[in-house]
Description:
CATH 2.40.50, 6-stranded parallel sheet, 14 helices, binds S-adenosyl-L-homocysteine
Amino acid sequence: MKFHIMTFGCQMNVHDSQWLTAALESRGWEQAPEEEAQVYILNTCSVREKPEQKVYTELGRIGVYLKRDPNIFAAVGGCVGQQVGKAFFSRFPFVKLVFGTDGIANAPNALESLAEGAEERIALLDFVDVYLEREVPQDASRVEHATRQAFVNIMQGCDNFCTYCVVPYTRGRQKSRHPELVVEECRKLVQAGVREITLLGQNVNSYGLDKGGVGVTFAQLLHMVAEIPGLDRLRFTTSHPKDIAPEVIRAFGELDNLCPSLHLPMQAGSDDVLRRMGRKYDCKRYLDIVKSLREARPDLSLTTDLIVAFPGEAEKDFQQTLEMVEQVGFESSFSFKYSDRPGVAAVKMTPKVAPDVAADRLLRLQNLQNDITRKCLKKRVGTEDNVLVEGKSRKQEDEGVYWRGRDSAGRVVNFRFDEGVDLEGMMVPVRIVVAKKHSLVGERTGEPW
Ligand code: SAH
Ligand code: SF4
Ligand code: F3S
């Protein structure tokens, strides 16, 4: 069977799609371009209205291929799959499988029996209350081979119920994975050539604090993974400020291969808004965490998520967000206009901020962020670091051959390397010579390794 997979949303979805691809390929299925596929898989995101709408647009578009082949069918998985469930069957009759974020473990088998015509429609929407281990595809690390970067799940779900967030409803309760299984998967990946691992969870700082916990904290897990010989880079995402333990902060100063970057969603810079968001920290606590992090690792690069125009956000609240962004000096941030999601508590909160005011705030925030990003990147000029190469640069600066990769903090670095060597997956020592708007240009200073 030829399948085409489309992925929306966060790194967890990207990772889930990689796994599903490998699991189908180990059954002899083949990835195909959109025009040739027999099965379409949409791994969807529901965190804001826009990515949810995109799912319907895409399904409408795919429906046109029924003219080419009336037997094609689609599967909708991920967060919108979980949320909308069987309603997809009536709205788009060519959707034959819906699977949720726990149900994905059985999606490869379900797709197989649908393709064989053994079943008409399948819904995999049940939540489980322990972390569901997934089959290990024959060539599990294949996807990660080229760039030598891999994601590893350490947990699933979220128990925080921030008042704007749909994730606890789409991904269920927090379920930690057994630490030995996490370490074993990481070890196998490193043995297969992976150099950089990102540990994934909705809220990694509360790892081990649910029923699946066995007394190993997130800080201990970080140490266990960092000790794997041959692992050059370790990252993790996402961290909730309220749960970050002093041991995790200290780990940034203790573990050489723990990368000097942290994504620490702040969401807002007004204590009043933070309270109504149900975030359970205030600005003072956030700034204290930042201070300890920088004491542990002075070169730490901080990034964040921000929501503007949360219900009830006044201009003065928004001003406080701008002030906090400036004060912390985030290297970059993802910022969003608040968007009502089905079933979340903030739907009922008023007054809603007018769309033009929200758009204006987002623009002002992003302008400020661009200035700060530029300043942070400028500071990198003259410093040296290793770049893990991801591929050739799209843009050629001049006649030379340019490669693109990421420095230890995850910043994009382009550099010239004319010798006809394939650098993908290699570390190349560089000195930063130019700061662009969103990336850096480096000059190679040593041999690739
Ligand atoms: N802990 C999660 C958060 C997932 S949602 C993680 O893995 O990162 C990612 C970001 O989307 C959140 O940090 C928040 O800034 C934003 N977001 C979530 N719900 C939103 C909503 N209803 N409207 C606008 N932005 C939202
Ligand atoms: Fe989107 Fe959140 Fe689901 Fe990720 S977990 S796909 S960000 S709704
Ligand atoms: Fe969402 Fe808050 Fe959990 S942002 S994923 S409810 S930590």
